[in-house]
Amino acid sequence: MGALDGKAALVTGAASGIGLASAQLFAAEGARVAVVDRDADGAAEAAREIGGNAFSITADVTNEEDVAAVVAACVERFGRLDIAFNNAGIAGNAAIQDYPLAAFRRVIDVCLLGVFLCLKHEAKQLIAQGEGGSLINTASINATQATAGLSAYCAAKAGVVMLTKVSALELGQHGIRVNAIGPGHTKTPLTARARNVPGFDEAMIGATPLGRLGEPEDIAQLALYLAGDASEWVSGQAFYADGGITVNELPPGFNILEARFDNA
Ligand SMILES: NC(=O)c1ccc[n+]([C@@H]2O[C@H](COP(=O)([O-])OP(=O)(O)OC[C@H]3O[C@@H](n4cnc5c(N)ncnc54)[C@H](O)[C@@H]3O)[C@@H](O)[C@H]2O)c1
């Protein structure tokens, strides 16, 4: 028996990386899954690979008509919606003084406004059904960890965590849980360019207590927990699946265990 038997789920950004691994795991655990992505071919391919009751929907999460159509398509296909993983996201990198407005706005639009639009239309459906549900948003360790060059991304992801809390507050009365996931550095196409920079992987691994980068499946396992009834008493929280990197606040390379000082 699967942890999500009988549930109807949608996953955005499911053509690739964390979303793809999560859609695969949700389906393996018994859910019927809508694979949502702006990449039509990637979404169709993912749905084909998952098989069973999975189907793909091409949608841009920054477009409200698209998002409304995604929820309507789930209801048409599955008769209901129980779980949504609002995970689509992009990265962007520029110094504050040089950040083009359009590029900054695009990151905010996809990573923050896209989550808002999904929550809005999913909540409407779940409230109408009257049987609760689980909504999960992808934030990042950058919701709490400032990183030079990532002003738009960090601001958007911090916003996702607060949006999650407010949604949990508003929707709890309907039995709807809302939580956020903050992945650490995970091996996906999103991070491929950064990981090509010499020394990047080594620096990240060196700062990570568990000593490796994340795999999309690491994040999918947390999404599965938050999606299913095992987390029925959990709402309004942000969980960081990051190998422990966010507890490492000292400068890289500094190890106080090796420093000599008198404890008395
Ligand atoms: N990989 C990491 O290290 C990492 C770390 C922290 C947070 N995240 C977050 O995890 C989420 C998934 O990222 P990933 O690493 O799997 O990246 P990815 O690039 O592998 O997948 C992102 C998917 O989102 C889709 N997408 C982008 N914009 C969209 C839009 N407007 N509408 C619909 N779909 C859209 C892309 O087509 C792609 O399939 C993102 O929100 C990202 O910010 C990733």
Structure overview:
With 264 residues, this protein is α/β, with parallel strands linked by helices. It has one domain: Rossmann fold (3-Layer(aba) Sandwich). The protein has eight helices and seven strands. It has helices at residues 17-28, 40-50, 64-78, 101-129, 151-171, 189-196, 200-207, 216-227, and strands at 8-12, 32-37, 55-58, 83-86, 133-138, 176-183, 238-241. It has a seven-stranded parallel β-sheet, with helices on both faces. Helix 1 packs across helix 8 (216-227), helix 3 runs parallel beside helix 4 (101-129) and helix 4 (101-129) runs parallel beside helix 5 (151-171). It starts with 7 loop residues before the first strand and ends in a 23-residue tail after the last strand. The relative contact order is 0.14. The model has no long low-confidence stretch (mean pLDDT 95). Bound molecules: nicotinamide-adenine-dinucleotide. Residues 12-13, 15-19, 37-39, 42, 59-62, 87-90, 110-111, 114, 138, 140, 183, 185-186, 188-191 line the site of nicotinamide-adenine-dinucleotide.
Task: Describe the structure using short key phrases.
seven-stranded parallel sheet; 8 helices; Rossmann fold; alpha/beta
Blueprint of the fold:
Elements: E1 8-12, H1 17-28, E2 32-37, H2 40-50, E3 55-58, H3 64-78, E4 83-86, H4 101-129, E5 133-138, H5 151-171, E6 176-183, H6 189-196, H7 200-207, H8 216-227, E7 238-241
Parallel strand pairs: 1-2, 1-4, 2-3, 4-5, 5-6, 6-7
Helix pairs in contact: 1-8, 3-4, 4-5
Bound molecules: nicotinamide-adenine-dinucleotide (NAD).
